[in-house]
From TrEMBL:
Lineage of origin: Bacteria, Pseudomonadati, Pseudomonadota, Betaproteobacteria, Burkholderiales
Bilayer-spanning residue ranges: 16-34, 40-62
Keyword Transmembrane helix tagged: yes
Keywords on record: Membrane, Transmembrane, Transmembrane helix
Organism: Paraburkholderia solisilvae
Keyword Transmembrane helix in record: yes
Protein name per its UniProtKB record: Transmembrane protein
Length: 80
């Protein structure tokens, strides 16, 4: 059970880092847009792409989390 906890922590850490990196893209675009005086207009064209990539990362996270849970159930049954 301890092995599953460490695997889950590694998974959470990996996706937390990924989400923070994904958050950096719109913040960078917003900073550049504000420095040029365009306001938030620079973010608007990229919103669909950003939502698509964020949705894909979330889907992958849920998929890996479910696989980890099913792996834990399988190893629990084998030990009985």
């Amino acid at each position: 059970m301890n092995e599953m906890t460490t695997k889950r922590k590694v998974l959470y850490r990996k996706y937390l880092f990924g989400y923070l990196c994904l958050l950096g893209f719109p913040i960078m675009i917003l900073a550049l847009s504000l420095s040029k005086g365009a306001g938030i207009a620079g973010l608007v064209p990229g919103i669909p792409f950003y939502v698509l990539v964020l949705g894909g990362a979330t889907y992958k996270f849920i998929k890996e989390l479910r696989a980890l849970k099913s792996e834990g159930r399988m190893t629990g049954r084998k030990s009985e």
